[in-house]
Amino acid sequence: MLDFIYYPVSWILWFWHRAFAAIPGLGKDSGLAWALGVVFLVFTLRIVLYKPFVKQVRTTKQMQELQPQIKELQKKYKNDRQKMAVEMQKLQKEHGFNPLMGCLPVLAQVPVFLGLFHVLRSFNRTGHGFGQLGMTPEENANTANYVFNAADVQSFLSARIFGAPISAFITTPANELLAFANYGGVPSRLSIALVAIPLMVIAGLATHFNARASVARQTPEAAANPQAAMMNKLALWVFPLGVLVGGPFLPIAILIYWVSNNIWTYGQQHLVFGRMAKEEEAKKQAKLEQRAQNAPKPGAKPVSTKKKPAAAETAVDAETSDAEPSTNGTPKSAASKASGQRRPGGQKRSGSRGRANQKRRR
Questions:
Q1: How far is the C-alpha of 38 from the C-alpha of 16, rounded, in Å?
Q2: d(Cα 33, Cα 146) in Å, to the nearest integer?
Q3: Beta pairing partners, 148
Q4: Measured between alpha carbons, how far is 5 from 110 in angstroms, rounded to an integer?
Q5: 159 phi and psi angles, rounded to 5 deg
Q6: b vs e for 319-335, b when ≥16 Cβ sit within 10 Å of the residue's Cβ?
Q7: How many helices, marked H, and strands, marked E, lie in the chain?
Q8: CA-to-CA distance for 4 and 116, rounded, in angstroms?
Q9: 331 in helix, strand or coil?
Q10: Is pLDDT above 60 for 6?
Q11: 8 A C-beta contact, residue 74 and residue 84
């Protein structure tokens, strides 16, 4: 049903195993050649997903920057979810924000993880549980596994890392361990645990420190969001604990996949965030240079583009009107003096008051 996933995963693993098996001193049956095949399967996938990962980082950062506006919309339309959804879509469209890009790299890794898990389990089909075929050790060793032929299956069964088959896990049933009898002997649980437990611890620590690096880069506003706070706790503590709890049920090759995936993620995060920090610094420097170009030269008087105050404009208009002649040929200032003077309180004196006094004296 999921052959469209199983076959590509098988092809990539087959290619890298062949490449490392050709190195002198390793060979087809080398556990290191198979382990490096798994590691470079991870690296191949992550190279393909590099650009989506960069978009994911930019989307996450953009979402953090939009948190204040998102909170305002949630507060404004808390009683109208439909209107809130419309406004949120409008905000995302205005800023070119695509929430799906934040999940794409993670979603793309899930089918690869499941595909690798299935392909690795299919090297040993002697079990009777879910997804197992219940073959005998002889039937299993002589049956192809997707792109791997019977010789490749036998080579995989012979591969060991410090005495442990890379397809075995700590809780492997005893009847399934018999599949390795003719190809290096039946491994002990102790030998499997001595390899698997350190890988489980490294995988858990790598998951925790990757999450810590991501949380440290969050803005205070984003970290204060209840949903983000819950996801941070899951990433910091629950997921690493899940690796330790689920590790005994995972093949050693899957634990190698998990460790190498986290190591790649840690290095890639530092690379991408370092480049983004340089881009932001370059933008800030460009803005400072633009301001410096627009600033007046030393010794030059800056040109004020502000409008004059209304009081100043009124005073200028009054002075201009005083200088203009009146209709009878005398200046307006003289006419105003003849018509009357203002009292200290601002009230005008009547211009005809002197004439009335002269008439009384006569």
A1: 8
A2: 19
A3: 145
A4: 11
A5: -70, 135
A6: eeeeeeeeeeeeeeeee
A7: 17, 0
A8: 12
A9: strand
A10: yes
A11: yes
320: amino acid identity, one letter: T
Tokens describing residue 319:
């002075």
The first and second tokens of residue 43, run together, are 């690296």
Residue 347: pLDDT over 90: no
Element (H, E) at 215: helix 189-216
Q: Are residues 340 and 349 in contact, defined by beta-carbon separation less than 8 angstroms?
A: yes
SS3 breakdown of the chain: % helix, strand, coil, rounded to 5? 70, 0, 30
More confident residue, 222 or 114: 114
Q: pLDDT tens digits for 67-107?
A: 778 778 878 888 888 888 888 788 777 766 666 665 666 77
48 vs 332, higher pLDDT: 48
Give the pair of three-digit tokens for residue 329. Answer: 């040929």
pLDDT digits (tens, 9 = 90+) for 12-35: 999 999 999 999 989 999 999 999
For 191, other C-beta atoms within 10 Å of its C-beta total 16
- Dig out the tokens for 116 from the structure: 């690798």
Helix (H, G, I), strand (E, B) or coil at 148: strand
